[in-house]
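A common beginner's mistake is to predict each chain separately and then try to dock the pieces by hand. The better habit, illustrated here, is to supply every component at once so that their relative placement is modeled jointly.
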Amino acid sequence: MTDAPPPKPVTACIVVIGNEILSGRTKDANLAWLAMQLNEVGVQLREARVIPDDTAVIVRTINEVRAAFDYVFTTGGIGPTHDDITADAIAKAFGVRLIQHPEAARRLRTHYANPADLNAARLRMANLPEGATLIDNPVSKAPGFKIGNVHVMAGVPLIMQAMFDGLRAGLKGGARVLSRTVSAKLPEGKMAAGLTELQARYPDIQIGSYPYFRGGQSGAAIVLRGTDAARLAAAAEELKALMRALGGEPTEDDESSG
Amino acid sequence: MTDAPPPKPVTACIVVIGNEILSGRTKDANLAWLAMQLNEVGVQLREARVIPDDTAVIVRTINEVRAAFDYVFTTGGIGPTHDDITADAIAKAFGVRLIQHPEAARRLRTHYANPADLNAARLRMANLPEGATLIDNPVSKAPGFKIGNVHVMAGVPLIMQAMFDGLRAGLKGGARVLSRTVSAKLPEGKMAAGLTELQARYPDIQIGSYPYFRGGQSGAAIVLRGTDAARLAAAAEELKALMRALGGEPTEDDESSG
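With all components supplied together, the output reads:
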């Protein structure tokens, strides 16, 4: 513990753009991955939205969330086909023109060595909002982009992850949230009063209770999250004492961050 | 095809309430399952939001989405512990009191045969917004509830699914969205112009292109979605002809709904 005031939290919202997620055809794999990565750099994911490939909805959503959070990350809708409308919608959200970005076009020309392969549809992937800067795509070259606090990435998890890996060093995080998870084979309803009391004494620690049923026995994983390791350790010790007092045997799942 | 006008689409929004999803600790399993179930009864999932266990955010989100969609389904935050604040927040969103629901309390009393086990924390699960009706919980008894067009369910997938199974028959769906998925080992950039042209001639069919990379070869799954089976079949035949003209061999992944 230091005497310096805790850094201001830095917040983020993820916008998953894609009809295929809303139809249930594709299970989103990006949200959980990004949530953990953001936490590693001290950015707290505060909200996520899944929206369709619909210009009006994208424009409205982006303008709402870019004003409310420090960072916005989108996934999906930046490929070569007619249903890839994210870049155009983001330009509309920012009130700027969609222009052919010279460096993006250059990268596509280098990637498709045979000029016949770089057809109009593929070259469309170089059309970005005026003023946007590129997000590298080491996998398939067609870049993502950043405009204002909005980071526009691919939906394919492998490509999205490669894009985020390139962004990571440039993100300015705040306090990193640490967590400890203590479990016991006690129904959460039995621990509830004690947890309420513990939460009241540790307002700086977020205490979450996650019940489970395994082999006919009910238990709960209690997750403690906060930015101060010493406070977290003190709360974890009190939690373990509470569990023992109720006849449970506390076990700690991990002591890592996240 | 009939001469009757197509039924008006019936829309839904899912609100996943839970810090554990935003921290990346837990992967949401409810969205994809609910998306498919809703489609089966002719309800189109148009948006999903993941929000924290935060009263102000829940109130604001619920009031926004219940005005914008025919149905709202929430998951999470209805257990016995201090971090279960969904019922209270929903009452605030509707501007009604939180009251002890007599039938919910009766069910809990029956479930916890030993009165000592039904402590204050557990009895809190019977506190529901005034005017709410119960959603049965065959698994662990503590019910979900419905108020207006908002359906409040548990976050544990097994319990949520059992709750939704009970709700299903009461939902009034519109036209069911059918889908066909045709794939070919062709890069989507090669098909893009043809797909744009196909989409222009089938404005009633939603055409989505989902690229994949398998064994070093790129391909794309083209998903056609619409409510009219005959129109869908016509579009699928044209799509297959397009793929063959480009040197690809179309394969149909499935012809089921979804």
